Amino acid sequence: MKSYILFSFAIVLASCSASAPVIIRPGEVWPDDRGTHVNAHGGGVLYHDHTYYWFGEHKGERSSAAWVGVTCYSSKNLADWKHEGVALQVSPDTASDIRAGSVIERPKVIYNKKTKKFVMYFHLELFGRGYSAARVGIAVSDRVTGPYTFLRSYRPCAGHWPLNMTEEQRAATITPGDFPEWWTADWRQATNDGMFTRRDFEGGQMSRDMTLYVDDDGKAYHIYASEENLTLHLAELADDYLSHTGKYIRIAPGGHNEAPALFKKEGRYFMITSGCTGWAPNAARLHTADNIWGPWTEHPNPCVGENAHLTFRSQSTYILPVAGKKNAFIFMADRWTPYHPIDARYIWLPILFENGLPVLKWYDQWDLKEVFQ
Ligand code: DGJ
After folding, report:
1. Closest atom of ligand 1 to CA, residue 259
2. Using a 6 Å cutoff on CB, does residue 315 contact ligand 1?
3. Does residue 279's CB lie within 6 angstroms of at least one atom of ligand 1?
4. Do 293 and 163 meet the contact criterion of CB atoms below 8 Å apart?
5. What is the predicted pLDDT for the residue at 16?
6. Of the N and C termini of the chain, which has fewer Cβ atoms inside 10 Å?
7. Residue 19: what pLDDT?
8. 42 touches ligand 1 (CB under 6 Å)
């Protein structure tokens, strides 16, 4: 009898928590289990073993640079976050690529089912060189929360041509040095025709704002702002996810996109990006493709309503598929506060669909359980 009562009590509790609202408040302070605002900016989320893991940039009171590293938080319901500590620590070694004070942005973690390793990619800028290095950093761990071991950083796809660059474009000889001025019609044409891809052919392609995407077949892709942030590249990763194969395409040449975030719904790929205005927000862009290798088509801003032209004062970072729900995706974005970087806020909104295309609307707060029933 006693155990029957306990059992019934457990069932009632479980069903209560299953239907309890999961409230997301975009733009508010998000306290973790210690009561401290989550410090995981430019982040991404990995769902593994029934738990969400949120990885992001640790930011300071005054500095956006990496003085700590990449943080990790875990959650079962996407509203309550437990601080798991620093997943990738910056190095005290001044010779290290990830020495304290370098720039580590937009970390993303994926899981490799074959090797059983967790693989982290991030945008790396070397200490004291502003944003000129434009490299990708790669780290790996046996445990999801880390510690991650830094492997290497480089500019991807050195010595490889994009699949969608013609023979004529590959052979052209015009260089950025031929243009005393940027943004002229001729400069734009040369840029669209791959002038910067050619310039960086030997040393590797520039790699700044980035995301990772793992497709249903387990193939993983690195999508990054390249060519002086003028053109996005989508590049295939090796089977162990630890390097690039050299197969890649250019997307929206000269379109000046950054902050890519990608998802797939019913066989179609969707990518939301931003324009390039530093920490200041701008209008989001939407791109779709039926094949990941393109062609990619651009559509109007998916945001509607007040502040739609500023992506509700935020910039995309990741699109999170809600586990166990069909066609349920959360748009994750950052509302940057460059003068107080640690206080930057998280804008998470449900992706709605109208006429087959994503639509983003502002909510002061929303219930994940109610929106994604
Ligand atoms: C915009 C990028 O999206 C951010 O990740 C960061 O690199 C800032 N620019 C720096 O100005």
Report:
1. 3
2. yes
3. yes
4. yes
5. 44
6. N
7. 72
8. yes
